[in-house]
Amino acid sequence: MRGLLYSNGKLQYRSDLPKPVPQSGESLIRVLKAGICRTDLEITRGYMDFSGVPGHEFVGVVEQSPNPAMVGSRVVGEINCGCNACAICKGGLQTHCADRTVLGIKGRDGAFAEYLAMPEANLHGVPDGMADEEAVFVEPVSAAYRIVEQVVVRGASVLVLGDGKLGLLIAQTLDIMGAGVTLCGRHRNKLAILDGTTINAVLEGELKKGKQYDVVVDATGVPAGAAKGMALTRPRGSLILKTTTAEKREIDLNLAVINEISVVGSRCGSFVHGMAIMETGKLKVRNMIDSEFPIEEGLRAFEAAGKPGAMKILLSF
Amino acid sequence: MRGLLYSNGKLQYRSDLPKPVPQSGESLIRVLKAGICRTDLEITRGYMDFSGVPGHEFVGVVEQSPNPAMVGSRVVGEINCGCNACAICKGGLQTHCADRTVLGIKGRDGAFAEYLAMPEANLHGVPDGMADEEAVFVEPVSAAYRIVEQVVVRGASVLVLGDGKLGLLIAQTLDIMGAGVTLCGRHRNKLAILDGTTINAVLEGELKKGKQYDVVVDATGVPAGAAKGMALTRPRGSLILKTTTAEKREIDLNLAVINEISVVGSRCGSFVHGMAIMETGKLKVRNMIDSEFPIEEGLRAFEAAGKPGAMKILLSF
Asked: Fewer CB within 10 Å: N-end or C-end of chain B?
């Protein structure tokens, strides 16, 4: 099959990839569209030591499934696949199973190929009214919503650092959930996506001097974001970390102690929540799409996604 | 008056220190006993750029006060003194006032001298049944209790890293509050203080391989403690930071994101709670006292407190 392969530090397009063979409990999905995320770029810089087909934001059609009712359905999928045998999985926390595979990130080929296989239990049907271009956002919107489960955002002053795709989705999701949101970015064109919302979208120099926030979210995607966020968090506030980088980062832990700041790592969220946020119809996702490339032009797509200021790049099959 | 002075990077004993002059709302307190804490040692290594009389763990007698009923009372005192004018102070969070002074730590002479002055509102009377040697522990026990306000400890598996004074007090406090506590230290003689309690006190090599804990507390007092604690915290668990050091520290923030760990800075607690824990009568504090020095031998006392394995060193007047 056609797809992208990352191996030996190199990303390449291949037309001879073996079609995945679904294991017990797994469905085979034909990918319709997939989105390139910053994590995918980090992976091609060595993050997670991944080798295989990358890609974890997708929408596809079920071609084979242990649940016959699913065949033919348009689906999105939760990316963490637990072992279902350990105590953590049995407690329902498959997303943190030590032996988990993660679609296109860890031990499991991902969505940048014609077909992928994943557990049927991870799949969620896509409502008819939701276009493919929207459905690929369920994964990052679920990750955005995860913050709502971790800290109280309703009524809180929230600063989101970073006007990349995830930052824009987080700002919108927390706004919908009742926070007073400021988003701080570097690109006027990206901030403009939030025009007409109640979000205060500003350039770095426009942040109110000396103001600190109840909750600060580092969605910058760069190593310096965490330290910058710490300085903007009020005493006893929370700094949410969404950024993972291949490089190590340093933050001033004395500041965390003295100001009693909670630094909270935040990753994937349940698609039930992400879907619910999508279904409010309030998220502006379509104007976050930069361009779409056929899988054959996947390397060009990665190049485009890596350009400063790039918005969401989609791959189609 | 007699006391210790830290200035220009040097700690010295002086008999000619000026007696403090209480400002509006402040009481003058004659110090009976004071405890040397690791923070005091860090201060003599440059932490907080403090200059003046160090010391913040004390018990004393009120000699002058805007509240006449307090004169003659034996007291302990909360160490953060807010400006009482800013929004943070008006919200009741004087401990985090940006303009606060902190007894013997920031902008206010401390307890390693015959007299100190501090706001009357910060003082707490000491019950008659509580000896001076016990009362000096109210401050660190309150700091230990602060953790109970930050994370759910009842029923949680808690690992306390560090068998120094604070580590031993934290382990005992969380044990009293219903956590399942393991304390990991380096000194058999210190671990032995917990004999007869339900705390599992172990040397580093004796920790159960591969086990992670719901809550890990870094009370090591050394830069490496935070990273070590992170690795021992279960996914979605909490790492509580009690350690402040003059040196910068690095932790793997990717690990915080991937395992969704909350890294929670923790500082001072209310003396109401510390006193309540002390009054349970269950804390073993007396056998944590190493020795007592008259203030004239304060430099020797600091030397003793800085020795590896030292327990609580008291100063008397």
From this structure: N
Please give the residue range of the domain that contains residue B148: 144-265
What is the per-residue pLDDT across B118-165, written as a single tens digit (0 to 9) for each?
999 999 999 999 999 999 999 999 999 999 999 999 999 999 999 999
Domain annotation covers residue B49: yes
Say which amino acid occupies A243.
Answer: T
How far is the C-alpha of B311 from the C-alpha of B298, rounded, in Å?
16
The burial class, CB within 10 Å (0-12 / 13-18 / 19+), for B15 is: exposed
The CATH number given to whatever domain includes residue A75 is 3.90.180.10
Same domain for B46 and B85?
A: yes
Number of domains into which chain B is organized: 2
In terms of domains, do B35 and B112 share one? yes
Q: How many helices and strands in chain B, by DSSP H and E?
A: 10, 18
Q: List, in sequence order, the alpha helices (H) in chain B.
A: 38-43, 87-90, 132-135, 138-150, 165-176, 188-191, 225-231, 253-258, 271-279, 298-306
| pLDDT for position A30 | 98
pLDDT of residue B213: 98
Interface test with B, best of A222, A248, A257 (most B CBs within 10 A): A257
Of A253, A261, A266, the CB nearest to B257: A266
Tell me the whole-structure pTM to 2 decimals: 0.89
Return residues 12-51 of B near A (CB < 8 Å): none
B260 in A contact zone (CB under 8 Å): yes
What is the predicted pLDDT for the residue at A248? 76
- Note whether B62 and B157 are same-domain residues: no
For residue B261, list chain A residues with Cβ-Cβ distance below 8 A: 264-265
Report yes or no on A89 lying in a domain. Answer: yes
Which residue has better confidence, A244 or A69?
A69
User: Is residue A272 one of the residues assigned to a domain?
Assistant: no
Cβ contacts (< 8 Å) between B235 and chain A: which residues?
88, 93, 96
